[in-house]
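User: quick one, fold this
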Amino acid sequence: MNKNIIMMNELISSFPKQLEDAYSAFQKLSLSSFEKSDRKISNIVVVGLGGSGIGGNLIQTITRSLLKIPYQVCKTYNLPSYINENTLFIASSFSGNTEETLASLEEAQRKGAYIACLTSGGKIEQIANEKGFDLVPLKSLAACPRAHLPYSATSLLLLLHHYRLIDIDFGTEIKETVNSLNQKNDTIKTDAKEIAISLKDKFPILYADAILEPMLIRFQQQINENAKQLCHVAVFPEMNHNELVGWHLPKEILSKTHILLFHSDYDHERVSKRMEICETIFNKHTNSITHISAKGNSFLEQVFYLIYLTDWVSYYLAEENGVDPFPVEVINYLKSSLQE
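Assistant:
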C-alpha cells in the first residue's frame, strides 16, 4: 500500500486520541486571563482557513447557546471594522505561515485586539513569542492540517472556557466522545465504506439542519481534498427558499446526484418535517438518497461522531476513485504561483 495512503489511514484513526491528547495538553499550558485586567471582551473573531479554520466554525455551532457575546469566523485577508481592544482575536494556522491569517494578525495588532494563537510553528509562533501573545501549540503528526482537526477544535473550545467566555470546559463530553468513537470504530468504518461505494461516480449533495452546517462543510472539504471530487452543501431551512427551485434542471446532472441527509437529535422539528417533504421532491430526479443519523449523548459527541464517520467516507471514496488521499498538489501549485 502507498505510504501516503497508510499515513492518511493512521491520521484518521488517531482522531479519538487527538481529542484526548488535546484536552490533556491544554491543562498544562500557562495562559493569561482577564481576571486581573480592565479589559472587557465584547466580541470574538477567529481567523483560519481550510483545515486550520473549520474548527472555528465547529466551535461556533457547539457553543451557540453558551456564548453571550458575538463570535465571527473570518476566512480572508481583512477583518471587520469593529475590531478593537475589546476583541478577542484568535489566529488559527496549523503551519503558522498561512498568508491570509498572517495579514489578519497584523491588522488585529494595529487595532489593539487581545490576541491568542493556535499553531504548530512557523511565523505565527514566532510572532506570538516575540509579542507575548497567548500561544496554544498544536501537535503535528504530518504536514496535513485537515487531519489535525481534533487538536485545533478542542484547543479553541478550551481556550474560550479559559477566558471564562463559556462556563463549562466540556471535559466530560470529550471523554465520552473518545470512549464512544473507540467502541463504535469498527461499525463506523464499515458504514463509511458502504457510503463511499454509493458515492463513486456521483455528485454528492449534503443537506442538514443549519446547526450542522460546519460539519457538512468539513465533509465537503474532505471529499474535495481526500477523494479529489466535487461536492455541494446547503442547509435547511434556507435551501427551501431558493435552492429547492433548482431541483428541475439540468436533468442529466440531477440524475447523477447522490443526496446525503444528515440528522441529529438537535434538529429543529420543523426542519425535520421540511426534509421529509423535500425527499419526495428529490425522489423525482434521483433514486440515490442516504440518511445518516448522528449518535451520542451530547451535541458535541454527535458532531464529532459525524465528522469521524465522514472522514472515513472520504478516505474510502479516495480508494474507490483510485486516488492518493494525502497530497493536494493543486493547492501547492497555487501557493507557489502566488509567491512568484
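User: anything notable?
Assistant: The first strand starts at residue 43 and ends at 47.
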